[in-house]
Specification:
The chain is an alpha+beta fold. Helix content is 54%, strand content 14%. The protein has a two-stranded antiparallel sheet.
Length: 81
């Protein structure tokens, strides 16, 4: 496990999980379920913001057309367009 993952608290991991769920399925959710998910994310935003300020490493998340996701890959692994 690298330093990047060791710095993640449970709250940060949960924020990322909820964000991914919202990004992937939010458009299909019932309005009340979506509101509840967004409220859970808002409750974790302070921890997420603090984590972002601490994190020195830049990573990239790429979602390809076939649904394959490259997540938390180092910035230097990609060429800028």
């Amino acid at each position: 496990m690298d330093e990047y993952h060791r710095q993640q608290s449970h709250e940060v991991g949960e924020y990322l999980r909820l964000k991914s769920l919202l990004d992937d399925s939010g458009h299909q959710m019932l309005p009340e379920s979506k509101k509840q998910l967004e409220a859970q994310m808002r409750a974790l935003e302070e921890q997420w913001a603090a984590y972002q300020r601490r994190t020195l490493r830049v990573t990239v998340r790429v979602r390809l057309d076939n649904g394959f996701v490259l997540d938390e890959d180092p910035e230097e692994a990609f060429a800028s367009a």
